[in-house]
Amino acid sequence: MPDTNRSRRGGDALRLLVLTVVTVAAAVVVFHFPPIPQDPAYHRFADDRPWLGIPNFQNVASNLPFLAVGLIGLARLFRRQAAPHDAAERSETAAWFFLFLGIALTAFGSAWYHLHPSNESLVWDRLPMSIAFTAFFAGLIGERISHHAYRLLLWPLLGLGIASVLLWRATELQGAGDLRLYILVQFFPLLTIPLIMLLYTPRYTHSRAIFLALGGYLIAKALEAFDRPIYNALGGWVGGHALKHLVAAAACWALVSMFSVPPTATNRSLGAVG
Question: 199-225: buried (b, 16+ CB within 10 Å) or exposed (e) per residue?
Answer without folding.
Answer: bbeebbebeebbebbbebbebbbebbe
